[in-house]
Amino acid sequence: MKKQIVILGGGTGGTMTANRLRRHFDADEAEIHVVDRDDRHVYQPGLLFVPFGLAQVDEIVRPRHRQLRSGIDFHESEVESVWIERDEVLLEDGTVLPYDLLVIATGARLQPEETEGLTGPGWNERAFTFYTPDGADLLQRALESFDGGRVVVNLIDMPIKCPVAPLEFAFLADAYFHERKIRNRVELIFATSLDGAFTKPVASKHLAGLLTEKDIELVTEFNAGEVDGVGGKLSSYDGRDLDFDLLVTVPLHGGAAYVERSPGLGDALGFVPTDKSTLQTLAQPNVFALGDATDLPTSKAGSVTHFEGDVLTENIVRFLEGRELDSSYDGHANCFIETGFHKALLIDFNYETEPLPGRFPSAVGPLPLLRESRLNHLGKLMFQWVYWHMLLPGREIPGIGPAMPQAGKKHLTTTTT
Amino acid sequence: MTALLIAETSVDVDAEGFLTNPDQWNEQIAEEIARESGVPALTDRHWLVIRYMRDRYLATGTAPSIRSLGKESGVPIKELYALFPKGPAKLAAKIGGIPKPRGCI
Q1: Cβ count near A85 (within 10 Å)
Q2: Nearest Cβ partner for B105 among A199, A221, A268
Q3: Do A158 and B86 touch (CB under 8 A)?
Q4: Is the pLDDT of residue A322 over 80?
Q5: Section A329-344 average pLDDT
Q6: Is A218 on the interface with B (CB under 8 A)?
Q7: In this structure, are A291 and A344 located in the same domain?
Q8: Which CATH number fits domain B2-95: 1.20.1250.20, 1.10.10.370, 1.20.1740.10, 1.10.287.130?
Q9: Using alpha carbons only, what angle is made at residue A196 by residues B61 and A229, rounded to the nearest 5 degrees?
Q10: How far apart are CA A259 and CA A255, in angstroms?
């Protein structure tokens, strides 16, 4: 009998999974539905470049439905709720989609309203985020007319999408003000809720060193609780204040709103509790999840979604055939970190192994890990092409498998530094 | 990991003084760690948070972040900071005898 596969979310994970499943199953074996509330697929890594005039929003947005193979039904509607007991999804437009298998790929949602004062007066005038196309655009205009003062780059609290992006923003801002020859009139501050520049010790130390080198002040364990967007003050819950002329913040993140409206599906923040190695949710055996929508202890990033995709597709096929699931997802993540002046770092890690120095994807490279290089920067730029033409269609990317490569990594216990 | 004598009980702690074995914990240990960390007396509100942290850790293997703690324990984040100055999630974990919450990524 024909299986009904419903995929919620037409972003990185949903699109890639739909395309892979469509190739695997013949039309008479499975119907595949993809649901998204809009038809704008944003290449999210591109948002980082918009504020500095290095990319335009229309260059990084394409229609979602155009990224899907023929034979996939695209529904443009908000999801009202999922009834996991009845195997049905209710859409806001009234459509009911019954499913044999459901994939949650609706990512994370920004919640600026959860921070007192953030979306009040001064929002998008003096306090910005570059995590949305509109926000990135407005910030670009504000930066253009900025001629000096205190810039605070802030991460309110984890989890956020692309945890390295706020650091990249600070590095690129340093380069941007240098290029405009006003760096000496700008004070750059990086305020984070973490106890260091980053979450993992070796990379954190390295990145803190880069901040110092670029004269960016690092303020740690700063849990922002309140923003005064007119007076220009960011206050932490433990009573510290940071004055700013321009605030660039990354708002709190939660899961998609319908997750909270669906009993038994998500946790307190709206993320979906998911098995870390099979990607089956804990909600129901026939509900799987990938990408930013899950509660997995790894980065919320496109690379993670991509690596998860291999195991997920395999497991959907196995589940529908009644076979045992593959439990091989290892938490692999891989991120380029732009550091300005046409250079970037690369980090590669998983649940067990933190980002280490060395080379990627093997001992002979070609890309250096945890070290600035021009080649990494080119890699980051080239990735946009790979994203639209290989990753979303669900094609293999040569040399890059889902499991994290160990060859090429310098473990500190075996190196003398 | 080192052994330390707290409230006349020998417990295993990490470099920052977090218990590495939650089974070695008791309420006297909690009170002593609290005093040493600048919380002179533990009120009912403190205990509510401490027990919530411990239960969550023992049930799931991870302690909640400050945000989930604020949403799930019923104690607002502002109050959490008043009860456990500086870092409520960390301090409540330390007093509650569970490992230091990992900065999730």
Answers
A1: 10
A2: A199
A3: no
A4: yes
A5: 95
A6: no
A7: no
A8: 1.10.10.370
A9: 105
A10: 7
